[in-house]
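dumping these here so i dont lose them again. two proteins, back to back, each one seq then structure tokens. dont judge the mess
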Amino acid sequence: MTRLPGSADAVVVGGGTIGAWCAWFLRRAGLERVVLVEAGTLGKGASSRAAGMVRAQGGTEAAVRLGLWTRDFYRGQRDELVIDSGFVEQGYCMPCFTATEVEAAHERIAMQQRLGLEVRWLEPAEFDELNPSVAPGLTLGSSYAPGDGWIDPPRNVLAYTTALVTSGVEVHENVAFTGLGTAGGAVTTVHTSAGDVQTGLVVLTGGPQLAEVGRRVGARFPAGGTRHQVVVTEPHPDLAPERVPMVFDVLAGIYWRPEEGGLLWGMSNPDEPVGEAREFDQDYFARMRARVAELVPVTGKLGVRRSWAATIDFTPDHLPILGPVLGADGPVAGTVVAAAGGHGMMWGPAVSRAAADLLLTGRTDVVDVTDLGLDRFDADGRSRLAPDPIALPFPERT
């Protein structure tokens, strides 16, 4: 463990996708000494165990803008970093199975198109033609965005680690954040297990551990963690990438994409208790496997090559948190809390850039953050915002 500096221009807490990219954005903006502290090691948490889905087909304006910004960031990474996060532009379908879903999809597409997203409606026959691996005649149609895709999560960790090192961000791993010092309603100090750092600018991240970060500053951050499971099937010619656009069955809470000649698919159980969980739930997998086999019949006779579970973060409304710490006397100047609400790969760079902008200037052009701060939650953690309807079925309470 290297020695922490006594002072810094800014300190970022957390070395996952949000914290790492945010530290890089702060350094690139001209701050001379940016310090990142991580309780474990870079990317050890959800960042390296994700499925890497990247889509701009959000259900709210904020979600669409964050998705578009992030997608463009991944596309242009190599120009700035030499290395990239491995973005693959595959195209993403969101099929509808009920008339209610169809109506909502058409309203959503109109909103997305107004914001500049290339997205269109597929009639049932068009969906079947684009998805020859899917059993025909099951859907009432689908939305489709050809520019959506995925990244390689381990490569993303490598990319942001490279960005941090080459830009001169001071990374301190195995250093736990323990609290903040304030004076006159503004932050003055970051307390850690390795000593204090004097600073007037702090970004707090934490993914599934964000609520604990909040407790350490005497505030409530309504964010939680829950189990998310991913499997990769054996390869099969029917699952060749050109036959498998990405698909999200929103009602069932299952998504899939091609991977290593097979099908990668992920799922979350909304009925599980909130908390850390990395054990694989075989019973829930069996239930969801039956649904996937119904939709993609070839998977019913394929074995599983890999499977894993990870704790993924969420917010009650499935939207990001971007705003200052709220202390007993109001907002704490010089602080920003940043969370992607379970969409780390999908929104991470955009949330990170917005957090850096807010810290430095108090505003950002990435997304309208007026309603995305901690003040949208009541004392019980309920949000005044309608939840983003295009999200995995995470618990509604933290």
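---- next one ----
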Amino acid sequence: MIRLVDVTQHYGVRPVLRHASLEVATGELVSVLAPNGAGKTTMLGVMAGVLEPQQGHVQIDGLRRRASEEDEAAIRRRLAFLPDRPWSPKNRTGREFLVQVGRLYEVDDDRLMDHVGGHPFALRSA
């Protein structure tokens, strides 16, 4: 489960999210539709831990983001944020990006392949 609790995020004096709350159950499929500049990418960044909200918090499967190093590491082993522009120049595909991030957080190759499809030897080394 992913839970946003009273999240406020702003850039300087420009508010983007104000007291946003959301709950997504495990296995639930959600689409977020809103005009440009409404905060969709910011909300995903906060959920992914890329951005720290000025107020509120995020919980992933009951673990609170940034509460402790152990909780954050456990969260990072459970999920990955696939941005529209991956930060690693080595990646040509979203699949390669996910595998690289998974290996960064020491996720077993067999588990990675369950999620990205394919065989680990078919992918470039991270």
